[in-house]
Amino acid sequence: MTIKVLVVDDQAMVRAGFAALLAAQPDMEVVGEAEDGAQAVALGREREPDVVLMDVRMPVLNGIEATKQLLSSPGHVPRVLMLTTFDIDDYVYEAIRAGASGFLLKDALPADLVSGVRVVAAGEALLAPTVTRRMIEHFSRAVAPPRRTSPRLDVLTEREREVLVRVAQGLSNSEIAEVLFIAEQTVKSHVSRILGKLEVRDRVQAVVAAYESGLVSSPNSP
Fold this sequence. Notes:
The protein has 222 residues and is of the alpha/beta class. It has 2 domains: 3-130, Rossmann fold; 145-212, Winged helix-like DNA-binding domain superfamily/Winged helix DNA-binding domain (Arc Repressor Mutant, subunit A). Helices cover 49% and strands 14% of the residues. This is Response regulator transcription factor.
C-alpha cells in the first residue's frame, strides 16, 4: 500500500530535500508541499495524506496550531510527524498534547526519516530515541496529576495497567517484556488493547493519558 505524505516546512531547500527523499521510496507518494501551517491545513484537507511531515516553527500558522486543526477536522484525519531543529523544544510537548504521533530531529539520518514515516503510517508512535525519556520526564513534571486515579482507567485490567506504567516510563516493548517476564508479542497485544480501551491513537497519547489520569506521576512529585 502506498503511503501518501504531505511535506510541510518553511525552508524551500529543506522541504524539497525531504520531498525528493520520500518520493524516491517505492511505497511512498508525496501528495503536496506546504510552506506554512495554513497551507498545510488546506492541503491536508484537500489531498488527505496518510502522514503529514510537519515543521514546528513556521510563519502564518505554526506546526502545533496546524496539527490541532488537522486532527480536529471532520472526515479524514492524518497522522502527524513533527520535525524540530532542537533536541528539546517546548513546542514539541505542545504538539504531543495536540495529538501528533511523535517527532524527529531535522538532522536525523535519511534512513531514519523514511523509517519514521513508515512507523507513523502503520499506527505506531515515534519519538527520537535520544529524547524519548527526557520528553516523558518533562511532560510528567508539567502535568499535575489528580489526587486519585481517574475512573477512565477502570476499563484496564491490572496487567494492562502495569504495561501502561512501563510505557509511560519510556520502556520499549522488549524492555517491558523483560521487566514483567512475559513475551514481547504479549506486550504488543496488551498495548494494542490499552490503546483501544482508552480510545487513543498511539503510545504517545497513552502516555499523556497515564499522567493526566494519575496512574503515573513525576519521580520528583511530592
